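User: Please run a holo structure prediction.
Assistant: Happy to. Please share the sequence and the ligand.
User: Here you go; the ligand is fe (ii) ion.
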Amino acid sequence: MDKIEWSDIMNTGNVEVDQQHKQLLDIINKIQESIHNETQIYEIEPIVLILIEHMQFHFNTEEEIIKSLDIDENIKELHYKEHREFEKHLNILKHDIENKEYRKVYAVERFTELFKYLIEWFVEHDLKSDKPMFLNDK
Ligand SMILES: [Fe+2]
């Protein structure tokens, strides 16, 4: 897994959303770097918990902004649903960290796998859901 550089293609057109996306990406890259450097799992866990907190805060911010957009209500509902679905994965991650699941045998591989999913979701959601939605605002 390589570091993800912020690219202008990821701009949604909403300054606040873009700013938070960049912050999220910074934390994601920090975790990515720690995994790459084989940092001890107990040192990575707190950073992941910070990421989870930031993502939840970000969803709240984004949804407040979405409410004010002049777009189809169904698109809004679908977007909220995407966030809720992803939160399920964040909750699993959080639960497993709190229960020290990643400190067991092969935990790093399992952790890396789940984290890879998280990164892919983030980039895909930005490009395929957030961006088209903000661009659609009349
Ligand atoms: Fe979103």
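The chain has a mean pLDDT of 89.
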